[in-house]
Amino acid sequence: MPSGWSDSSTERFPGWDIIPTQVPYLTTDPIAILQNLFGGGQVQQQRMAITDLEIRAADLEAARAELERQRAAKRSQIGEQVLMLVIAYETAGDRERAILAQLSNHDLLTRITEIDYRLGGSSTETYLTRIAQREQLEIQLNRYRLERETAKRQLLSLTGFSPSDDLKKTSEISDLKTLW
Fold this sequence. Notes:
The chain is an all-alpha fold. The protein has helices at residues 9-12, 19-22, 30-38, 42-118, 124-159, 165-179. The chain has a domain at 45-160. It starts with 8 loop residues before the first helix and ends with a helix.
């Protein structure tokens, strides 16, 4: 053997040390050659492994696409819920303001009925009917306030937003102002 050469063939030819890992089916073993030609050898095993990895990659891509679709559907569903809750909140607020206006008008009519009652112009039944009507309006007002507060709480829960104490105090003060 010439000097500088070793028994290993990969040292004689630089770069050939990658051949056994990249092309393992090049062999001088006749049994391995026959297996590679007729199936069941390393070539087929590597092709099956590559195909298996490609199938797994496709499955992962399909799962990712399904998750994206589900995420988009959930986002759309939450958007619809937020929209419905905002509409419910605004509707309850409008109804509340309408009832407050009715209560104001009703209080004026009740005062007129009371004066008329004291002067003998109306009956006790008319006066008591006015008081019962006011109670019904107050019940409706409380129902609309409850609907509005429920919609507000659901919105806050759905969006994860939590108003600060200053915002709470401001809204309570504005609610008191609308009552008077």
